[in-house]
Design brief:
The structure is a homodimer. The longest helix of chain A has 24 residues, at 239-262. Chain A contains eight helices and twelve strands. Chain A starts with 11 loop residues before the first strand and ends in a 12-residue tail after the last helix. In chain A, strand 3, helix 1 (49-58) and strand 4 form a beta-alpha-beta unit. The first copy, chain A, is an alpha/beta fold. In chain A, the strands form two sheets. A six-stranded mixed β-sheet of chain A has the order 1-2-3-4-5-6, covered by helices on one side. In chain A, strands 7-8-9-10-11-12 form a six-stranded mixed β-sheet. The structure holds fe (ii) ion (FE2) (2 copies). Residues 70, 72-73, 126, 151, 159 of chain B line the site of one fe (ii) ion. Chains A, B: Its EC number is 1.13.11.18.
Amino acid sequence: ASYTTSSSSPKLLFRQLFEKESSTYTYLLADQSHPEKPALLVDPVDKTVDRDLSFVKDLGLKLIYAINTHVHADHVTGTGLIKTKVSGVRSIISKASNAKADLFVEPGDKICFGDLFLEVRATPGHTLGCVTYVTGDGPDQPQPRMAFTGDALLIRGCGRTDFQCKIWVEVQNCCINQCIHRQEHEIIFTLPKDTLIYPAHDYKGFTVSTIQEEMLYNPRLTKDEVLKSGCGRRNGGGDAVAVAGCKGRSVTVAEKFKSIMENLNLAYPKMIDVAVPANMVCGLQDLAFKSA
Amino acid sequence: ASYTTSSSSPKLLFRQLFEKESSTYTYLLADQSHPEKPALLVDPVDKTVDRDLSFVKDLGLKLIYAINTHVHADHVTGTGLIKTKVSGVRSIISKASNAKADLFVEPGDKICFGDLFLEVRATPGHTLGCVTYVTGDGPDQPQPRMAFTGDALLIRGCGRTDFQCKIWVEVQNCCINQCIHRQEHEIIFTLPKDTLIYPAHDYKGFTVSTIQEEMLYNPRLTKDEVLKSGCGRRNGGGDAVAVAGCKGRSVTVAEKFKSIMENLNLAYPKMIDVAVPANMVCGLQDLAFKSA
Ligand SMILES: [Fe+2]
Ligand SMILES: [Fe+2]
């Protein structure tokens, strides 16, 4: 078992930043070997934009993208504010989020900064448009890989699935089973076990985990013992194989997962009525949400 | 300029953990290549002991040391509590701290865990007994090196120096100049520039820095331009050289530093009357501080 929790690449500059009020992690990534030092921020928070931007300036980076993993319900994204303060920065969110931004990404897309890039993977469940950004695979890319999972996969947990997935269940004839199956497939089963998990939040003070560790200890992924002992697709494999090989197991896990999530009795989030409308227009330069 | 902020060694398991109330970072280090996976905690907090210990258990580690960088004034150390919960753990603090513990370390000592070790460096100023623990130099040791600076060097700051150094000035005919000179010598000038700085606290959400970065941007180290342009001992050198080559400069920097620190007008710390007496007996198994 390898729990090494650092990734190295001579090109990558990487920093994890914390916003205490909403316990949100913002991530700064840059290609410091490139003459322009192009940089991006994942999940910036409005309240810490000044900190983030002065940090970017200190390090001599050129911020080109401000990216969200999903439409947050617990804090207002910093992307709109960043765009008013630094010219040339483009906001990015998934097309499936239905939110506004300068650029929309879909599963399989690559977000390039210098010689480095992030891959986009669909991880719906917490929201319909949740994506996970994963550092690239290749000689210049950081090893082990790093997955910015948003709220899809948290350390020893995952984001609540009662926001949009409930609606989705009824309207689109989908089910939470498919959400978690999709998440597992995109994050857990097709990435190396030593991939580092960097979530959008942590409430207990953890900063990073690995896929291996979450497979073993995440209570929302380990309720079925089959998950621990493996089911023939631990090391990846196509979707067809995954579905064929694990359908029975997935259903069981998903049902248990669903029952855990339904019994959490989560409170209505404090910030949701402010944050979601604002975050739906995160990329707008006119900061429409200021009047909301 | 290199700002890479990850250190790698196939042997090292490393985790940064955060305690929100006092904004304290606790660090877990282990040699995961060793059959016993010996581990140590740097600056554990009493309130997060259960989290830390269940984490240690999850990862299959054997906790052997619970270490403090200094006698903390803002939180109660977790070392005493840890010793009541896990047998065989030994607490460590510097001899100069005058606090109680199972083992006392002095500058130059090594704390070994498996094939890895930490070096002890004296960095007085915030308190008389403040030390910095630095990962070893050698083939198996993590690269770049990692310095656990406690409150001696914080990211873009340093711990207040009005606790003990003021007394020290009068009683021991020492001066803050020597403190900061000592700190600079032990951390800034004799370690590689890419050494990672892991402080005991951060109040703005930063998680890590590098020596290079602090040399450039730490306001308490950069008040004299000489510091930026260098003075002939950037890459180390003996104490004699350091003092001979930089005496004039050091005095200037230290005077400016002293004036910054004196003008901070810091409030009396909330926790100090509880925390300091408790932390002076951090290694005691009878938890004498419980009755304090
Ligand atoms: Fe969320
Ligand atoms: Fe302190």
